[in-house]
Write a structure and sequence with these properties.
With 117 residues, this protein is mainly alpha-helical. The chain has a domain of 55 residues: Multidrug-efflux Transporter Regulator, Chain: A, Domain 2. The protein has a two-stranded antiparallel sheet. It starts with a helix and ends with a helix.
Length: 117
């Protein structure tokens, strides 16, 4: 599939896909005889993972580390797993922080409701 469809399926923009490719964070994207990129199902899976890692706030530096581990081969699976586990822990803390923020907002809104009431 071509880049526009890859963008649509992965959630990334065409520009972001091109940036990721130039930066080396993507596995090799094959090109047709016309020179245009041809994305495989594996490429789409990888792009989708990158979309969600960024969406959850993973720093680019960590994404590059994860990508380089992936490209180094299966012997890096324990290291890749550790990167994802650390990110999952970060998300748990972030979720707890957001829950506390929501509680504070609810408290403040309740005060305003009482004053208007």
């Amino acid at each position: 599939m071509r880049i526009a469809e890859a963008a649509l399926r992965s959630g990334l923009s065409v520009e972001t896909i091109r940036y990721y490719e130039k930066s080396g964070i993507l596995p090799e994207i094959h090109r047709g005889q016309d020179g245009q990129r041809r994305f495989s199902a594996e490429n789409i899976d990888w792009l989708t993972l990158l979309f969600w890692l960024r969406e959850t706030g993973m720093p680019m530096k960590t994404m590059y580390r994860f990508a380089s581990l992936y490209q180094a081969g299966d012997h890096t699976i324990p290291d890749r797993k550790q990167v994802l586990l650390a990110h999952a822990e970060h998300l748990k803390k972030r979720r707890a922080d957001l829950d506390r923020c929501e509680e504070m907002l609810a408290y403040k809104l309740a005060i305003y409701e009482d004053r208007e009431g």
